[in-house]
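testing teh design pipeline on a random one, pls ignore if ur not involved
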């Protein structure tokens, strides 16, 4: 398992709004790099 994904999962489980915000930022960064 990826450590970053695990941390995001823990944060998302304990604090959903922050977890969703971090997941959105990571997803936007990945799409920006690939694009």
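output:
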């Amino acid at each position: 398992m990826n450590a970053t994904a695990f941390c995001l999962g823990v944060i998302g489980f304990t604090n959903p709004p922050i977890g969703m915000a971090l997941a959105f930022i990571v997803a936007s960064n990945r799409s920006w790099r690939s694009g």
